[in-house]
Here is the input.
Amino acid sequence: MKDHLEVYGHAEAFEWMMHLVQEKQITEEDILEMHRLFYRKIDEENAGKYRKSKVFISGSHYPLPDPEKVPDLMKELVVNIFKNRNTGHAVITAAKAYLEFVFIHPFVDGSGRVARLVMNLILLQEGYNIALIPPVLRAEYISSLESAHSDDKEFLTLICKCVYETQKDYLRMINS
Here is the structure.
């Protein structure tokens, strides 16, 4: 993989990200590159690489998949994103991708951040603005993630509300 920031510079990295928006697809390599770009200065050894050890989410009652299952689960995630794009609403596709990503938790650190990047990339690819999950909704967000192990309705509703409220915020800023 190319280090778009070091080899090509910031402008080229931006162009690569904009290319991803226009592609209307997300590959496993794209996900690994996103993680590598964000974590190379934090944890160079693990940046852009799937975890090789068991991890836990503090406060969660649900175990994460064993590390040897992560590569196959990530391949399945990419296929599911493609399938959901062809059968569902863009916001639901983005929210389901986020949820599936977090349940896989493919990286030692940064899985949640990259999950939000993937969700927002899907939204951008489908013509939406990025969605923000405000800190005031953190407790509701955590609760809905936990309950999504058995029923994802609460989580999907929360993401839909966040997309809607973020869109309204952008419109308010434009009109002020």
